[in-house]
Amino acid sequence: MIFRGTDTTALLTEWVMAELVLNPDVQNKLQEELELVVGSKRSVRDSDVGNLPYLQAVVKEALRVHPPGPLLSWARLSTSDVELSNGMVVPANTTAMVNMWAITHDSKVWEEASKFKPERFVESMGGTNVDVRGNDLRLAPFGAGRRVCPGKNLGLVTVSLWVAKLVHHFNWLPNKENPIDLTEVLKLSSEMKYPLSAVALPRNLLLSS
Ligand code: HEM
User: Fold this and answer.
1) Is the dihedral of CA 5, 130, 59, 105 positive or negative?
2) Is residue 80 part of a domain?
C-alpha cells in the first residue's frame, strides 16, 4: 500500500496544480465553487468533497490527461486465447499491457482530447458524469476488475481535499523564472519531468480551522 499509494497520490496532486496554474479560468471556477459550498469562514473538510462536482471533475480531468499509472499494472499474462472486438487474437501465455494513456488521449474517444477541460465531466455544464473507478473503460486510471486499485476511493478523496485546500487558501500563479513544462517521465508512476514550481499568493480568508 505504501509502495502504490504514496507517489500516485502526490504526483496526481502535482499534475492537478500544474494544470490549474496553466488554466487560470479553471482555477477561478474552482474557487467560485469553494466559495459557494464552503464559504470563507472555515477550511474545506473531506466531507465537503462530495458536494463539489467541479472539484471532482478537475481531478478526473487530471487523471485523464496525466494518468499516474499510464500502463495500469506493468504486465499481465493471458491464460487463454482472447479475441478482441476488432478481430485480433491475443494468444494464451502472451504478456500483455493496457495502454490507458493511449485510450485517454484518443481523439476518437474524447473530444478535444489534448485540452484540459473539466467541464466535460459536469452534467450541468453539458458534460457526462464518467465513473473513474473501473466501470467505464474509456477512463479507468485505477484499473478495473479483480485487481483494480484497492486505494482508489482514498486516493480520490485525498487528492481532492489537498487540491481544494491549496486553492481555497492560495491563488496559484506561474513562476516566470521556472515556467511549467508538462513533459512526462515514466518512473514507478508518471511524473513531471521538471517538477512543478509556482507562486502561491494567500487569499486572506477569515479561516478558523
Ligand atoms: C490517485 C491515486 C492512485 C492511482 C492513480 C492508483 C492507480 C493504480 C493502478 C493503475 C493500479 C494497477 C491496477 C491494475 O493492476 O490493473 C493500482 C494498484 C494498486 N494500488 Fe493504487 N492508485 C492510487 C492510489 C492508491 C492508494 C492511496 C493505495 C493504498 C492506500 C493504493 C494501493 C494499491 C495497491 C495495493 C495496488 C495493487 C493491487 C493488486 O495488484 O491487486 N493505490 N493503483
Assistant:
1) positive
2) no
CA distances from 33 to 11, 19, 61, 71 (A): 24, 17, 17, 33
Nearest to 37 by CA among 59, 159, 29: 29
| 152 Cα: distance to centroid of ligand 1 (angstroms) | 7
The pair phi, psi for residue 139, each rounded to 5°, is -145, 90
For 143, residues 6+ apart whose C-beta sits below 8 A from its C-beta are 69, 72, 73, 98, 134, 149
Domains in the chain: how many in total? 1
Output the domain CATH number for residue 196: 1.10.630.10
Look up residue 24 and give its amino acid: P
Q: What does pLDDT average to over the chain? A: 95
Measured CA to CA, the distance from residue 93 to residue 53 in angstroms comes to 43
Q: Rounded to the nearest whole angstrom, what is the distance from the C-alpha of residue 146 to the centroid of ligand 1?
A: 12
Q: Which domain holds residue 117?
A: 2-68+113-202
pLDDT of 209 strictly over 60: no
Longest dimension (CA), the chain: 62
Please give the helix or strand (H or E) that residue 205 lies within, else none: none
* Nearest Cα residue to atom 43 of ligand 1: 149
Distance CA 55, CA 162 (A): 11
State which ligand 1 atom lies nearest to the alpha carbon of 143. Answer: 16
Average pLDDT of the segment spanning 110-138: 97
